[in-house]
Prior knowledge:
By secondary structure, the chain is mainly α.
Amino acid sequence: MRFISAGAAGLLAATCLIATPALAQQGERLIQVRPPTAERAPSPHQLELSRRYLELMLTDQFEGVIHEMLGEEMANDQSMQGLPDADRRFIVSLTAELTADMVPAMINEMVPVFATVFTEPELEAMVGFFDTPMGREIARKSMAVMPEANRAVMAVLPQMLEKMATRMCQHYGCTPAELQALRRDMRAGAGLTDDAVPSPAPSRSK
């Protein structure tokens, strides 16, 4: 049960954090992405446009944004609380630096994915917009707002985990003690502190 709860919490947290304004540009519906085949391989122009779009979206602010978000997540991570401040700052800075260094490799991996999903006219429209002054400003603000969006997501995450724990226990048939343990495990898996685990809601008399 603990393995299931930790995995579910981690998946939910990751899913929530991905849903930021910077990535909302990708569309409002889920698309099943299949690896390109010889029959439907993207054209060289699609690959070129995809690379340009990703370069426009991953602005120079990326490292600073990652640094801020990592710092907040580490501050909420109980396993990191015992580290001296200097060590925590070093780990945050190192992780942000290495993440930023990975951007070229990330783009290389993402280019064929975007080139497969989006048509050439769609890519031309995306690049045509984000390569304008207004488009660049929107991309910059989309990146800058990510830490605040992350905080907004984390504010509602505890209630989502509470509902998930309750539904899972209804499905598997937990005891009250198992429900409390499940809540703790899910919060720990999502990197949340355990100082405000909600108590079971009182049953309403009919």
